[in-house]
Amino acid sequence: MPNAQAQINASLSRLPSVDEILESDGAAALIRDLGRERAAGIVRSLIEEKRAELIANAAEGKIWAREELTAEINEMLKLAGASAQRAGVRKVINATGVVIHTNLGRAPLSHDAITAMTGAAGYSAIEYDLNAGSRGPRGDKVVSLIKDLTGAEDALVVNNCAAAALLILSVFAQGREVVVSRGELVEIGGDFRIPDVLTKSGAVLREVGTTNRTHLRDYENAVNDSTAMILKVHPSNYRITGFTRSVSTRELSALAKEKNILMYEDAGSGALIDLKPLGIKGEPVISEVISDGADLVSFSGDKLLGGPQAGIIAGGAELVGRLRKDPFYRALRVDKTITAALETTLEAYLRGTAIEDIPVMRMLAVKEEVIAERSVRFVEKLKDSLGTGSNLTAVPGRNLSAVGGGASPDAALETTVIELKHQEFTDSQLEARLRSVDPPVIARIEAGCVLLDLRTVPEDDETKLLAILTEIGS
Ligand SMILES: *Cc1c(COP(=O)(O)O)cnc(C)c1O
Question: CB atoms < 10 A from the CB of 270, how many?
Fold first, then answer.
């Protein structure tokens, strides 16, 4: 087909230039938001995309007019602009019912913590003694709060719990053996695997017991001259049930003391107060881990604790002091805004107002009747604002929320969800549509429905959510 090549060349020659598209009205907003360079980059790649499409579809023999091509690229530009706007860290409405949603930033912070974080964002006395008017110890208030809450002699805050484990293992177990039960060699979300963390820190893993049962004598038999410590890891995101046996913190720390080695517990999420009344079972209470004799314990700041991303280490004064002096700590320490948010979050526990003040606690503690009432009320309001003949239907339904964050996977948190159906969209189209608005609404698809769980939606966001659903339904 000698003409086909001529036809395609004709179309290709009519592709607009980058500058032509940038001069068009459609590009003005993009240039304003992203700057000319980045906008030009997007336009260039869209023109390339169109060029490839023309070549791929050459057999159709269509000859494109310049106006058509320009209009198509402008249309693509709108979508690319909207997608560029959505990139990055931005507010979403978490309607999944997963309270500690790792992909959505784990714990949402309390109003007080956000205020403290904002206040600390400028100059702040992170390493300055205001009474003396000179340099002071870094973050000593947060340390004293952790000591008060856990009963530990000293504490240290690092980037996250993974950093805490790396620091502890590399300082105290490099080149030496660490005894761990085979039932606790866990993976927590892809890139945190206990055996790999041990290797990375230079420690030698000494596995004991079996997947389901490990006895005290297994640990006893494994301890030798090159043993540095016994490590107990909270299995967090999974549970072994049935014929099982694991050894308690108390027994392990007594053994460690007898053998003159360390006992370190990676509690993962852990809990600062007993969460059993909230239906959260099997999470070690940190103060009990300390009183049961662990030399060191580590836990996350942004899981059940409900604060910012951080790894908290609590334990004996001499041991924590050595961690603080290690150059590795300097690379893992947290910044002023995190320190401020953590201080404020911990203060709520000490005041005894954690359940009211900390969003994670509030969302876990809320009674199912309260969620049911909210959901029914919301559905009624939505029906009113949609009016008759809407494409969207919403009904309340019984379901379960989840703790998330690798904590308490078997907790049954009864809830009432809002089940959505759209006449023109499939479930996945409706779910994607909810994600495309501002702020994006993250929903769950289950049994042929799109579900919204108000447990994780702050009441402040309800009006916004109502407006979004009304828009989608009309
Ligand atoms: C979550 C978890 C970690 C990792 O904590 P990050 O704060 O996410 O680094 C480590 N160990 C256990 C047992 C965990 O549950």
Answer: 29
